[in-house]
Amino acid sequence: MLRFAFFVLLCVSTAGFTQDSASSQEAQTPAAQPVSEQVAAAEADLVKSDWKAAQAKLESWLAAHPDDARALFDAGYVADAQNRLDDAASLYRRAVEANPQSFLAHLSLGLLLARQNKLNEARPELAAATSLDPADAGPAMKARAWRALARIDRSSDTTEASNELLEALKLTPETVDDTLLAASIADQAGESDAAEAAYRRVLAEDPKSAPANAGLVHLLIVRKLYPEAEVQLRAALSQSPDDPVLTAQLATVLAAQDKAEALPLIQKLHEAHPADTAITRMLAEVMAEAGDSAGSDQLYSGLLASSPQDAALLIGHGQNLIHLLKYAEAFAAFDTATQLDPANADGWSGLAFAASRTDQPTITLHALTMRSKFLPEVPSTFFLWATAYDALHEKAAAATYYHRFLDSSAGKFPNQEWQARQRLKLLESKP
Questions:
Q1: How many structural domains does the chain have?
Q2: pLDDT confidence of residue 430
């Protein structure tokens, strides 16, 4: 079984904002105000998608009229359409400053920042848009603001996100994307039955929906219903054989079932997406489980080069080093990992073992004490307790833990069981 948390690419993410960008709508400008002939001409170019002509006219006008809110918005729109996102954000901000009541300027800035994953900056702009009159832009545009807020808030406040989606549905009919968003919010809130029902509702209408299939499989993986998830994924991939999300999920499910097919599938996925750190991390985990500690550790070392403070990566690296008999290096990795993430029981388990192999019994006992806050004892930890106390010449404690180890080992650790019995003969012999 994999020792890593399941890699799941969820079907809804900040990528959802790309369809709500200003550059995807018809050119609309802040409501009525006197319009110069030059700005009107630029807007005519916008209608024709002649961005360069519009840009030239607007830049000329703004050089002499830098506070014209309408021209600033138009210039931001042009920059947005040309994918000059930093320029677009700057121009939208200037439009907001010039006219704080501009619904479209707030909305477009908020959507742009959300697409850039600057969610903390995007939220107040979108919230401002929901409080303003959309005027000629219409209720559908205001619904976009509510939907974008729901996407932002789903990971931090599912109640708020649900309310925001409901506000959007008051203004426009429910869409498939709304149903998927509602499912994501329910999943985040721990309402798995509601989430599953929503995903299945989408699949009833469109069995090929990759986001709905991925969302449903995510729920099945969380419930550890791996065979059912595998059936669902194979059916979905027969319709969308190159979908990277579904492929990654199938690899996860196969690895969770210890199926040999997992490794070549993840390797193929990694070859297609070599820069994807999540896929690289997943491949490193599966390679380690397959016994290729050296190959796995090459991947971990590469990941750690760019994320040296990632406790999970350090733990995976340390586990490989243990298998490679590099105990001192493993100790250093686990020591750093437990400092970065004191609540990670795997880090304390690794540190306890590495400390025992580097003759540091006091640290072994400390690590075992910390581990016991999160996980129950198992035969291997009983043995570590015993040998650490034994090394410190605490005979009574060592004997107690040797007995606990023997009572729980059930013949699964013959070498350690022999050692425990030999040590007990010495520890309990009368002087």
A1: 2
A2: 65
